[in-house]
Write a structure and sequence with these properties.
Largest sheet: none
Number of strands: 0
Structural class: mainly alpha
Shape: globular
CATH class: Mainly Alpha
Distance between the termini: 31 Å
Order of helices and strands: HHHHHHHH
Number of helices: 8
Number of domains: 1
């Protein structure tokens, strides 16, 4: 059994202070942590079903992250306070998020891209920034799902996998994100609908 402290190879590592934010005291192995986080995320998805809010805002993003992880992590819904192996520098997080929200609002208003592309670009912008200590991929995918549904399209399937384990689906997802880092969104759009 793997300790909950051991992060998967391509995951965002938590600092010692961030690990101290774990709320359930009984968690000792990664599978327990994953299960608790997944239960919390399912509750957040149920909460979303009765909310018809605009996902393109800082307040919504923080609230959704807290709903997704708030029963597991004390820092849920709060921006990270440490530098990470991914994402922008800590001091850039608020301004870069505002830039993403502003761009997405503009794209929607001016129909710059189709709904799927706007939503995938939204996801990429959010995950690229990595605003939270952890859970950024799951959070940004759900943010994109909410947006694409608000724009009248079906929810994304994201490879029909949890993307939590280091399997082929996760490797494909990571490679499509890297292509999007270079402004090539085609593979990420295809993956989101696969």
């Amino acid at each position: 059994m793997t300790s909950y402290l051991v992060e998967p190879d391509d995951a965002t590592p938590l600092t010692a202070d961030e690990r101290q934010g774990l709320l359930p005291s009984h968690v000792t192995v990664r599978s327990e942590l994953n299960e608790l986080e997944q239960q919390n995320i399912l509750e957040a998805e149920s909460w979303l079903l009765v909310r018809k809010r605009d996902p393109v805002s800082e307040a919504f993003g923080k609230t959704l992250h807290k709903r997704m992880f708030g029963k597991v992590w004390r820092w849920a819904g709060h921006y990270r306070k440490s530098e990470k192996n991914l994402g922008v520098e800590l001091w850039q997080v608020p301004a870069r998020l505002q830039e993403v929200f502003d761009n997405v609002r503009y794209w929607i208003e001016h129909q710059t891209f189709p709904a799927d592309e706007i939503s995938v670009r939204f996801h990429h912008g959010l995950v690229f920034i990595h605003p939270f200590p952890n859970g950024n991929g799951r959070w940004s995918r759900l943010m994109a799902d909410v947006l694409v549904m608000r724009l009248g399209q079906p929810r994304f399937t994201w490879g029909r996998s949890s993307l939590q384990t280091a399997d082929e689906t996760r490797r494909v997802y990571i490679s499509t994100l890297k292509a999007a880092d270079n402004h090539d969104f085609a593979a990420l759009i295809t993956f989101a609908r696969s």
